[in-house]
Amino acid sequence: MILAYGKFLELTFDFTGKTTRKDYWLASLVNFIIVLLFAAGIDGFARILTEVALPHILDIIFAFAAMIWIMFALLFIIGTILPNVSMSFRRYRDAGVSKWLFIVEAAFLISLLVFVSQWALNGYTTILATLIMVMLLLADVLIKLLPSEREEVAAPQELKS
């Protein structure tokens, strides 16, 4: 798992190679676990700050620690955008689908931004936005689950005597 994550970070600017299913899903799992840890930390800070009666100075210290934790979470998310995009692009290439089909990934990310912004502004989102986002996510995941495309091996040339 650590080796797959090392490759994930090492190949940040490589849009020409390929990423196997195993490497893709292991790196994705590590990213998911890290994001869960950040979310759990944010939830913990929020609970302490809202539910526990602390002296004023401890309240300030916990609020400052929460802001630093959120900053690290945002830096991680922003810092892994390009490695995630390049890894997804390599996974599409490895699955043997056209690079133009990568528009599915871009459309999913745009629909996710629309979904989150609608929810943040209105407290709800439209059914159409949700449906489009879920369909694009499903298409993206199915493409990434495809087996690796086999390399065509040239037939051995007959030895000439």
Automatic annotation (TrEMBL):
Signal sequence interval, chain numbering: none
Q: Which UniProt keywords apply?
A: Membrane, Transmembrane, Transmembrane helix
Q: Which residues cross the membrane?
A: 24-48, 60-79, 100-121, 127-146
Q: Which Pfam families match?
A: DUF805
The answer to keyword 4Fe-4S applying to this record is no
User: Know the name of this protein?
Assistant: DUF805 domain-containing protein
Write down the species.
Answer: Fructobacillus broussonetiae
Q: What is the lineage of its organism?
A: Bacteria, Bacillati, Bacillota, Bacilli, Lactobacillales
